C-alpha cells in the first residue's frame, strides 16, 4: 500500500497532533524547552531535568544528567517460569496474568535515568508517601503485541504510543525521555517473552502491553516529582471481542463530564480514568457497555469510554460523511486507532471502493442532537467506537435523556464502514490479506 498522507497540521493552532514528532516537539517546547533536544529532535543528547526552571537552563547541567538509554539494559531472567493460561480460559480474560518478565527504569532529578532492567515480573516496592499514590502522578499507554498469521510478531505503529507517552508525562511533571528508547525497551520485552506467551501455532492471538510511569518520591510535598519509575508489563487479555451485534452506549448525564478545555483529557493519565468508573459502573448495571461522554450545554460528543467515537451519516444535502470529534479543545484523546482510520479513509474512501460509496472525512465539533436528528430523518448510516482495547466496535444503540437512538448495522452485526476498517487494520496487525509488509506493522525479531 502506498504511504498515507497525514492530515496537515494547521500552523499556530492547537490542532497539531500529539502523536507526531512535530506535535510532540510543539507540546514539549511549550512547557519545557530544555527537554526538546533529547526528547524529540536528536538521539543521545542528555537532557536537563524537567524540574529545572525553563527560563534559566544551564548547559553545564545537561552533561551530567543521564538520558534513558536502552542499550544499557541489564537482564535478569526468571528462575520460576509462569504458566501460560489456556486459550479461552477465564484466567486468560481476567487481565491479571502477566508474562515472565518486565522492564523497569528509575529516574531522579540529580542523576537522570539509571540503566534500565529486564527482570522477572513481580511486585514493586513503594513508600506509602510515594507521590503517585496521593497526587495521581501516573500515566500509561495501551498497545498490543500480535502473533501474525505469517508467524511473525508485530506491534502496530508503536512509535505513536511512545510519542504520546512523552506528551502524557510532560502534562503531569514526570521526566522526559527519548520515545525511541522506550520503543527499544518495549521491543526487548516482547522479543524475550513473545515466543512462549504467543506461540507460533496460535496465530491471531495477542498480549496487551502496558508501559507505565509513576512518580515514586517518598515525600508528601505537593510539588514536581524528583523521582520516577518507568515500567512495562505484558498482560494476557480476553480475545479480540468482535462485539458483533454491536455495543450499547449510555450518554453521560448533565452533571458529569470526562474532560474539559484546559484539563488533561488529551493525555493518557490515570487521573482521567478513576473518576469515570462511577458512571461506567452505572452503565454496566443498566445493561450498557460504555458511557458516551458528552461535554457542555450543547452536548458535544467526545468519546465512548476509552475509545474514539465515529459516525457515518448523510447530510441533509445528501452527502455521505464519516465524522469524528476534532482535537482542537484537547478534550479528546488522540487515538492511534482513530488516526489510522482517518488516514485509511483519506487514502481509500474518498472515491468509490468496491461496494462502498465514497465518504467525506470530517473532524469537527458535533453534538448528540445532530445524531438524534439524523436518526429521525433516516440519515444515520452507522456508528462505531475505535481504540486498541476494544478495536473497532460497532454501535447498535445510544441511550440519551430517556430515549434510545437505534443505530443501523447494514451488515447485520456491523456497519459496512466499520467492517472494512476492521479488515484493513487486522490485515496489518496480523500480517495477512496482502498487508504483511505494511509500514504500520512493526515486526519484532524474536530472541
Ligand atoms: C486509549 C484511549 C483511546 C484509544 O486510543 P488508541 O491509541 O486508539 O488505543 C481513546 N480514548 C481514550 C480516552 C483512551 O484512553
UniProtKB/TrEMBL annotation:
Listed InterPro entries: Aminotrans_IV, Aminotrans_IV_CS, Aminotransferase-like, B_amino_transII, BCAT-like_C, BCAT-like_N
GO annotation, cellular component aspect: mitochondrion
Compositional bias of kind Polar residues: 31-49
Any GO molecular function: branched-chain-amino-acid transaminase activity
GO biological process: L-leucine biosynthetic process; L-valine biosynthetic process
EC id: 2.6.1.42
Catalytic activity: L-leucine + 2-oxoglutarate = 4-methyl-2-oxopentanoate + L-glutamate; L-isoleucine + 2-oxoglutarate = (S)-3-methyl-2-oxopentanoate + L-glutamate; L-valine + 2-oxoglutarate = 3-methyl-2-oxobutanoate + L-glutamate
UniProtKB keywords: Amino-acid biosynthesis, Aminotransferase, Branched-chain amino acid biosynthesis, Pyridoxal phosphate, Transferase
Annotated positions of the N6-(pyridoxal phosphate)lysine modification: 268
Disordered as annotated region, ranges: 29-57
Pfam families in the record: Aminotran_4
Cofactor(s) this protein requires: pyridoxal 5'-phosphate
Family stated for the protein in its record: Belongs to the class-IV pyridoxal-phosphate-dependent aminotransferase family.
Entry-linked PANTHER family: BRANCHED-CHAIN-AMINO-ACID AMINOTRANSFERASE, SUBGROUP IIII AMINOTRANSFERASE
Protein name: Branched-chain-amino-acid aminotransferase
Amino acid at each position: 500500500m502506498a504511504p498515507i498522507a497525514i492530515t496537515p497540521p494547521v500552523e499556530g493552532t492547537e490542532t497539531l497532533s500529539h502523536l507526531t514528532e512535530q506535535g510532540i516537539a510543539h507540546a514539549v517546547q511549550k512547557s519545557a524547552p530544555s527537554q526538546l533536544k533529547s526528547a524529540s529532535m536528536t538521539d543521545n543528547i542528555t537532557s536537563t531535568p524537567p524540574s529545572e526552571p525553563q527560563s534559566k537552563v544551564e548547559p553545564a547541567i545537561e552533561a551530567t544528567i543521564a538520558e534513558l538509554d536502552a542499550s544499557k539494559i541489564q537482564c535478569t531472567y526468571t528462575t520460576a517460569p509462569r504458566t501460560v493460561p489456556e486459550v479461552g480460559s477465564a484466567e486468560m480474560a481476567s487481565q491479571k496474568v502477566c508474562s515472565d518478565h518486565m522492564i523497569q527504569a528509575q529516574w531522579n532529578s540529580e542523576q537522570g535515568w539509571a540503566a534500565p532492567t529486564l527482570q522477572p515480573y513481580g511486585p514493586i516496592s513503594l513508600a506509602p508517601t510515594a507521590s503517585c499514590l496521593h497526587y495521581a502522578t501516573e500515566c500509561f499507554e495501551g498497545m498490543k503485541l500480535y502473533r501474525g498469521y505469517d508467524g511473525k510478531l508485530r506491534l502496530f505503529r508503536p512509535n505513536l504510543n511512545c510519542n504520546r507517552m512523552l506528551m502524557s508525562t510532560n502534562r503531569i511533571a514526570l521526566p522526559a525521555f527519548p520515545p525511541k528508547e522506550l520503543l527499544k525497551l518495549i521491543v526487548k520485552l516482547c522479543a524475550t517473552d513473545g515466543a512462549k506467551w504467543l506461540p507460533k501455532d496460535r496465530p491471531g492471538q495477542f498480549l496487551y502491553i502496558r508501559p507505565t510511569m509513576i512518580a515514586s518520591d517518598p515525600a508528601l510535598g505537593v510539588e514536581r516529582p524528583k523521582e520516577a519509575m518507568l515500567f512495562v508489563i505484558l498482560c494476557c487479555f480476553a480475545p479480540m471481542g468482535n462485539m458483533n451485534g454491536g455495543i450499547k452506549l449510555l450518554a453521560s448525564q448533565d452533571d458529569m463530564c470526562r474532560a474539559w478545555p484546559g484539563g488533561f483529557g488529551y493525555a493518557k493519565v490515570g487521573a482521567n480514568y478513576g473518576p469515570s468508573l462511577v458512571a461506567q459502573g452505572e452503565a454496566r448495571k443498566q445493561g450498557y457497555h460504555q458511557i458516551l461522554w458528552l461535554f457542555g450545554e450543547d452536548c458535544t460528543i467526545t468519546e465512548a469510554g476509552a475509545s474514539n467515537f465515529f459516525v457515518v451519516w448523510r447530510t441533509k444535502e445528501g452527502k455521505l460523511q464519516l465524522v469524528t470529534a476534532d482535537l482542537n479543545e484537547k478534550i479528546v484523546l488522540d487515538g492511534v486507532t482513530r488516526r489510522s482510520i482517518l488516514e485509511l479513509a483519506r487514502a481509500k474512501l474518498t472515491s468509490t471502493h468496491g461496494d462502498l460509496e465514497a465518504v467525506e472525512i470530517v473532524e469537527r465539533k458535533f453534538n448528540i442532537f445532530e445524531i438524534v436528528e439524523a436518526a429521525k430523518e433516516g440519515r444515520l448510516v452507522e456508528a462505531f467506537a475505535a481504540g486498541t482495547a476494544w478495536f473497532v466496535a460497532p454501535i447498535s444503540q445510544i441511550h440519551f435523556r430517556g430515549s434510545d437512538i437505534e443505530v443501523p448495522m447494514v451488515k447485520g452485526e456491523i456497519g459496512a464502514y466499520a467492517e472494512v476498517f476492521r479488515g484493513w487494520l487486522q490485515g496489518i496487525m496480523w500480517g495477512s490479506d496482502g498487508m504483511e509488509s505494511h509500514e504500520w506493522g512493526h515486526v519484532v525479531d524474536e530472541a
